Amino acid sequence: MARPPCRRRLLPAHLDTLAGRILALLIGMSLVLILGGGLILQDERKDRFEERNLAYLIDDVTTLVWLLQDASTDERARVIERFSRTGDQIDVTAAPSLGLNWPWRHAVEHVIHHKLRSALGIEDRESLRVRVEIDERRGDTEAKRPEPPPDVHPSHQDNRPTAGIDGRLQDREETQPSPSMDPRQLRENIRTHDVKAIVICARLRDGDWVNFRTTRIDQPPPWAGKTLQLLGLLLVAAIGTGLFIARKTARSMADLAEAAHRFGHGEDPPRLREHGPREVRETIRAINQMQERLHKHIQDRSRLLAAVSHDLRTPITILRLRAEYIDDTDMREKTLATLEEMEAILSATLGFARDEAADEAARSTDLAALVQTLVDDHVDLGGEVAYEGPERLVARCRPVSLKRAISNLIDNAVKYGGRVRVTVREEPGSRVIQIDDAGPGIPDAQIEKVFEPFFRLEASRSRETGGTGLGLAVARTIVHAHGGMLRLTNRPEGGLRVSIRLPEQEK
Length: 507
Fold this sequence. Notes:
It is a multi-pass membrane protein. The protein is α+β, with helices and mostly antiparallel strands. The protein is built from ten helices and 13 strands.
């Protein structure tokens, strides 16, 4: 039978297994979930951070202004140094670094100005100035210009804690967002116009101006180490869980494949333990039941065949005794010869049934030594048999039954072919035993028929030369029970070639 063409392997070797594919699937799904969740979390963090940044900006500027209001020069220097540690640029000058705010260039300026006036209680609009610096490379940076907000009374103060010059915290009312822009609109406005910095100038009571410039407006914080560690731990946990599930699932499939392989090669493996997923358990249960039914069928057939062969011995013995009383010598000899042939057939059949019922276990065997022993035995009996092959070649087989099959084949070769050469060699994935003789060969049309039980050729391999017609059938049955193949071919130079190919199995 021709072997199916090999498909080109598109996946790596470790992904060609069930465990590898399950693990790859789980890892891929985990990565997609973790990365997707991380992107969603990053976007939410950015939204929250932008809102929080604006709130922190209002708090920082409010606290800074309150601390600098009545502070001395030295105290102001210390306050500015502390607030500048975050990267903000702060100084106190006699004149503001910004001009008047009106008209607003950017909606964010309006919102910050409105919130700071409420937080600081500034009535004079010109005492607080806000400017948003835009990245001009973004193209159109013209912002929405809302109507100027109504003046806010100093009592409209937020409740965020602000520190006074004496270090005590003071509570203010919650700053209400500008009615002209909600937080989402504000975030979109900042993103759309690519705000890179915000500059705020506030006048102190002594007439000086505090100038505050920050870039902490649209920069989400980097992933924290704990967050990355948690994501890594989740990935490791997913890989570990996937590896455990994949190995458990693949183990049950591997056990099933091994048992089926051994059973297909003539062994009788023990009943498989039903484990793994439900579908695998049902498959294992079906394999166990099939193995039990098939084993019982073979045993019943072998016992029936042995019983019939044994029971026929009694009438054959009676016929032999009665044949002795036949007066016609020629008839008596022919009858006795026929009875002897029948007894030989029964002996061969009984031996075959006995071998099947023996249920021999497979084991590692030196195949080269087994064949050399058979060759030496035939040489001792006067046969012209030669061995060609390695000194040692180990194969897993049932040595008693295989020895009988090879012996039958060598017997036929010696009997009908004269000179015989037995070759043993190793090929990729198999062990090959080749028996060549110098006989007349077999007609091509009858090569398959000679494997049928009790079939004998009419030429030199006829009844007169002996044989029961079971030798080749028994040999082929034994080879097939090993998962192997037995073929007969006529050699171009003359003679018959018998090839036994046994698959390589795990030791």
